[in-house]
């Protein structure tokens, strides 16, 4: 084992760099996945290139949630991308570095086709989960040299995350109307 110089951080393996992000994905899955047994939803984990050992291309999101709307063939379709940081308190400060270049265009295509794109951001520092709408992130992602000063659509604590998930799945129309402003 090599010794580190003063102020030098240990070199981490790629699978260790985003350990908090993987933990947040597992938390999100553990909150939404059981709801499929109680509510008319479909919850699906989308396998990405990192999870598949870089054998498949980048995906638009980590999860897809479909919720019955009451109209045949027209469920609410949410694409949910989970991001986390142990350094930043808000997604607004680090979203450009967390979203891969190929990821945003894929989400944009899905949103153009009618999906609702969401970014869930967990700040390890604050313990809060921010809910961001794709339209907010898209505008700021392509803007050069401008400070992103938007705020999340919703903020929830980790303890209240299961309550938030249930409410989204029970009444997606209200979530879209009241939280996303749609």
Number of helices: 7
Q: Report the CATH C-level class.
A: Alpha Beta
CATH fold naming: Trna Endonuclease, Chain: A, domain 1
Calculate Rg over CA atoms.
17 Å
Helix content: 25-40%
Mean pLDDT: 87
Q: Could you spell the SSE succession in H and E letters?
A: HHEEEHHEEHEHH
Strand content: 15-25%
- How would you classify the helix and strand content by structural class? alpha+beta
CATH architecture: 3-Layer(aba) Sandwich
Specify the overall morphology.
globular
Strand order of the largest sheet: 1-2-3-4-5-6
The number of domains is: 1
Largest sheet: 6 strands, mixed
Layout of helices and strands, plus pairs?
Elements: H1 14-17, H2 19-32, E1 41-45, E2 63-67, E3 76-85, H3 95-98, H4 103-112, E4 116-123, E5 128-133, H5 134-142, E6 154-157, H6 161-170, H7 172-179
Parallel strand pairs: 3-4
Antiparallel strand pairs: 1-2, 2-3, 4-5, 5-6
Structural overview:
This protein has about 180 residues and is of the alpha+beta class. The protein is built from seven helices and six strands; from the N terminus they run ααβββααββαβαα. It has a six-stranded mixed beta sheet with strand order 1-2-3-4-5-6. The N and C termini lie far apart (about 55 Å). Helix 6 (about 160-170) crosses helix 7 (about 170-180). It has a single domain (about 20-180), classed as Trna Endonuclease, Chain: A, domain 1 (3-Layer(aba) Sandwich). A hairpin with an 8-residue loop joins strand 2 and strand 3. The chain has helices at about 15, 20-30, 95-100, 105-110, 135-140, 160-170, 170-180; strands at about 40-45, 65, 75-85, 115-125, 130-135, 155. The longest helix has 14 residues, at about 20-30.
């Amino acid at each position: 084992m090599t010794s580190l110089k003063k102020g030098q951080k240990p070199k981490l393996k790629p699978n260790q760099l985003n350990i908090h992000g993987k933990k947040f994905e597992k938390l999100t899955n553990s909150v939404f996945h059981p709801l499929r047994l109680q509510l008319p939803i479909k919850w699906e984990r989308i396998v990405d290139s990192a999870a598949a050992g870089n054998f498949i291309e980048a995906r638009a999101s980590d999860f897809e949630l479909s919720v019955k709307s009451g109209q045949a063939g027209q469920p609410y379709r949410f694409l949910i991308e989970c991001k986390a940081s142990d350094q930043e308190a808000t997604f607004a400060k680090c979203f450009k570095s967390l979203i891969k270049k190929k990821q945003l265009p894929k989400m944009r295509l899905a949103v153009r086709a009618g999906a609702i794109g969401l970014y869930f951001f967990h700040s390890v520092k604050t313990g809060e989960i921010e809910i961001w709408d794709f339209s907010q992130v898209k505008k700021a992602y392509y803007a050069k040299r401008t400070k992103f000063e938007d705020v999340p659509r919703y903020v929830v604590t980790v303890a209240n995350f299961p309550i938030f998930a249930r409410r989204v799945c029970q009444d997606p129309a209200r979530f879209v109307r009241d939280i996303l402003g749609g």
